[in-house]
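note to self — DONT lose this again. spent like an hour looking for the file last time. sequence + predicted structure for the chain T wanted, 407 res
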Amino acid sequence: MIPNPFVSSPFRARRAAGTLALAVLIAVSAGCGGASGPGKDATAQAAIPVEVAPASHQAVTANYSGTATLEAVGEAQVVAKTSGIILKLMVEEGMRVEKGQLLAQLDDDAVRNKLAQASATLKKAEAAFDKSEKGIAKSLIPRSDYDRDKFDLETQRAVVEGAKIELAYTRILAPISGVIAKRSVKVGNLVTVNQMLFQIVDMEPLQAVLNVPERDLGTLKSGQPVHLRVDALPDQNFEGSVARIAPVVDAASGTFRATCEFRDATKTLKPGMFGRIDVVYDQRHDALVVPRSALVEEDGESAVFVIEPAPPKKADDKDKSKGKSGEAVAAEKKPDAPLFVAKRRVVKTGYAENDRVEVRDGLKDGERVITIGRNAVRDGTEVTVLTPPPAQAQAAQVLAKAPESGS
């Protein structure tokens, strides 16, 4: 089935109907501009049909947008510190573990035997040193024998401590708290020193790093709120904040690092997700805004076309010669829709959010600006405000609700 783009939504249907009516009126105006029939006003026929929108006070926010990948703040690769065969696995992928929790148990028989031998030798060394200590006190043995027995005792104590550490290594413990993201071994596997066994990821919090152009270095600050939308969850919005701003600018790219932090109590966000981040650095609760489509950028200036009522027309000499009064001629020449004049107005813009732009100077609340048809007008051009007929709007709604068809 081939989708029909003109009926994909009520907005597109109404938009298509309005644009079609606008095109028809422009064509009629162009066709009738050369000559006017009896009882018709050529000036009114030549007026450009446009759509307008009023300037109004609304809340608008200023933000910087960028894309980044979520990363876990805490992440650890759990490796084997001794070799051995895995006897037990206590955890699985997806399980939450705490720091110091037992993850796996290696075969420790050989290590325990080694510790027992070292402990027996230590006892022998302790007995020899005890005898030497008594002998040196009574000057019965040379000092060299005493020093030798003392050195042997300290060495054997170190051997015992080493055996205890090696025995402890047969118990694989979690170095951090988090979630088991990956298990790389099975029961019965022979593991070697430094072999990766588990990957633990701490989901709280998650961070994302934005590479921001240096021109915004004075705009972004720590603690500013941020909004995140990820591709995997397009209908959800996640809140966070700027954790820190890098104190230096990368000379090669001309950017600095802004680290954003997110704490998701629902645990919906996952490390590795890609999304768009909006850093809100200012907000105006009562700003004068207009649609972005009303702006005209020319010669380095921002301008809009404001509509004003057209001045009344005077009856010409030809009509007067026919014996008609000025009032009769004016009534005969009255157009179907009221005439307006487009006036170009230079404005000073501020923040932009989605399809709205703040106007800080040059416009008043309630003034109507041209949004569709502005490219066809100039300063002083006569225009008529296009209003879709009720029947046309109703037809657009019916089309929008109709099921898609195709072959």
